[in-house]
Amino acid sequence: MKGSCDMALKLRLKTMIIEECEKEHIKPAEIEDNVLLFSDDSRLELDSLDALQISVALQNQFGVRIPDSKSFRRHVTTINELADYIQPGVQ
């Protein structure tokens, strides 16, 4: 199963982002799966420090290493894209 079809994985990613970036005022259900995480539409107000925290958390919790900022910007765009990166599944 592709990550973007795995509701439990997406909930886990949303929860991780909220906790790691100290955005407890936002609930996981308020983060839409296809909204750009680093945009005003996401309501998360993420910045470059948050990106670093997310990158470290992905490595610690999922064993996923994102080697550089260019790769990060390519894979950590939306919850669906991030879930598919972590769990590629069958195309």
Task: Name the helix and strand elements from N-terminus to C-terminus, one letter apiece.
Answer: HHHH
In angstroms, what is the radius of gyration?
12 Å
Q: Biggest sheet, in brief?
A: none
Number of helices: 4
CATH topology (level 3) name: Non-ribosomal Peptide Synthetase Peptidyl Carrier Protein, Chain A
Mean pLDDT: 92
Secondary-structure-based class equals mainly alpha
How large is the share of residues in beta strands?
A: under 5%
Count of distinct strands = 0
CATH superfamily: ACP-like
Flag low-confidence runs.
Answer: none
Level of helix content?
A: 40-55%
**Termini separation:** 9 Å
Question: What would your notes on this structure say?
Answer:
The protein has 91 residues and is mostly helical. The longest helix has 15 residues, at 48-62. It is globular, with a radius of gyration of 12 Å. The chain has a single domain (3-86), classed as Non-ribosomal Peptide Synthetase Peptidyl Carrier Protein, Chain A (Orthogonal Bundle). The protein has helices spanning 7-20, 48-62, 69-75, 79-86. It has four helices and no strands. Helix 1 (7-20) crosses helix 4 (79-86).
Quick description:
The chain is an all-alpha fold. It has 4 helices and no strands.
How is the secondary structure organized here?
Layout: H1 7-20, H2 48-62, H3 69-75, H4 79-86
Looking at this protein, list some descriptive labels.
91 residues, mainly alpha, globular
